Structure formats: structure tokens, C-alpha cells
Amino acid sequence: MLPIFKSIPTHMDYKGQKLAEQIFQGIILISAVIGFVYGLIIEQFGWTVYIVLAGFALSCVLTLPPWPMYRRNPLSWQPALSEPSGESSQKPQESLKKKKHK
């Protein structure tokens, strides 16, 4: 892969995802209302479809790429815990004794 593609950020934080969803829904809703009213006035359903498709294209351009406004609240991950040597690498659930039901 070209090195230029590796430098492009591809992540979006949770608040950015919520913002992108709100922008997407708002643009679609506004374009649908404008398209419906305009198509009703000129009595051409085709214009309604064109306006809604234009709103969809605009919302995709604004919300699909991970713009910097969607990456303002990154998660701070906890550091990885190192396993002490000498202990088994079993899961905690496996090391517990199974209770016998009577």
C-alpha cells in the first residue's frame, strides 16, 4: 500500500459518531422537506427526488470521512497489565472450582 494512505486517519470517537449521525439525519430531513415543498409547488416529483439525492450526497461528504471535528474526544485507554511469570495463562473463570449441585 502507498505510504500516503497509511497517514490518513480512519478513526472517529463516540461523540463524533453521534455528531455525524445527527448531521446526517438533519440534512436528510431538511432536504426532504425542501424537496417535497418545491416539488409540490412546481408539480414535478422528479425535482423532489433530485433535491433529496443532493441532500444525501452532501450529507455523505460531510459525515463519512473522519473529519477532525469528529475526533475531538479520543478515548484514553488503560495501559496493558503484564502477566506475572509462573502463573498459568488460564482464564479466571476456568480456574474457579465448579460447584456440584445436589
TrEMBL record:
Q: How would you describe this protein's topology in the membrane?
A: Multi-pass membrane protein
The superkingdom of the source organism is: Eukaryota
Give any single GO term for biological process: signal peptide processing
Q: Which UniProt keywords apply?
A: Endoplasmic reticulum, Membrane, Transmembrane, Transmembrane helix
> Which stretches of sequence are listed as region Disordered?
79-102
**Compartments in which it is found:** Endoplasmic reticulum membrane
The answer, when asked if Transmembrane helix is one of the entry's keywords, is yes
Q: Which GO terms describe its cellular component?
A: signal peptidase complex
Membrane-crossing segments per the record:
23-41, 47-67
**Partners and quaternary state?**
Component of the signal peptidase complex paralog A (SPC-A) composed of a catalytic subunit SEC11A and three accessory subunits SPCS1, SPCS2 and SPCS3. Component of the signal peptidase complex paralog C (SPC-C) composed of a catalytic subunit SEC11C and three accessory subunits SPCS1, SPCS2 and SPCS3. Within the complex, interacts with SPCS2 and SPCS3. The complex induces a local thinning of the ER membrane which is used to measure the length of the signal peptide (SP) h-region of protein substrates. This ensures the selectivity of the complex towards h-regions shorter than 18-20 amino acids.
Query: What does the UniProt function comment say about this protein?
Result: Component of the signal peptidase complex (SPC) which catalyzes the cleavage of N-terminal signal sequences from nascent proteins as they are translocated into the lumen of the endoplasmic reticulum. Dispensable for SPC enzymatic activity.
Membership in a protein family: Belongs to the SPCS1 family.
Q: What is this protein called?
A: Signal peptidase complex subunit 1
**Organism classification, top ranks?**
Eukaryota, Metazoa, Chordata, Craniata, Vertebrata
